[in-house]
Design brief:
One of its GO terms (molecular function) is cyclic-di-GMP binding. This protein is mainly beta. The protein contains 1 helix and 7 strands, in the order βββββββα.
Length: about 120
């Protein structure tokens, strides 16, 4: 099966919480991530096509946590494997250039912590 996505997706092995910056509430954790979007695993129901301001942290190459804030559009949602669990797909529509570059490097890295 060939991959036809625009950006390479990377599974996030540890729990990375995602915060809605408008409410400062945790809305889930990252299932997979790319420079262009993410799949969120949680119990929060989002409005299709709506825009959200989200924040999460990723480890850099030195093990330090780097905060990332994105503007994201909700694209799809599906039932997850657990009771009440939802998988939600987001497309990033606004991200600072510096963070976008970091995400591209992070998503292409073979292991967490590879980006410099």
């Amino acid at each position: 099966m060939s991959e036809h996505r625009r950006y390479k997706r990377r599974t996030v092995p540890q729990a990375v919480e995602v915060i809605d910056t408008m409410t400062e509430r945790v809305v889930g954790r990252i299932g997979n991530l790319s420079a262009g979007g993410m799949m969120l695993i949680g119990t929060t129901a989002f409005t299709e096509e709506a825009l959200y301001q989200l924040r999460f942290t990723l480890p850099d190459g030195r093990g330090r946590l780097r905060p990332i804030q994105v503007g994201a559009q909700m694209l799809w949602s599906d039932s997850g494997s657990g009771s009440g669990q939802l998988w939600t797909g987001f497309r990033f529509i606004a991200i600072p250039t510096r963070d976008a570059g970091f995400l591209r490097i992070w998503a292409d890295a073979a292991e967490v912590g590879d980006p410099a």
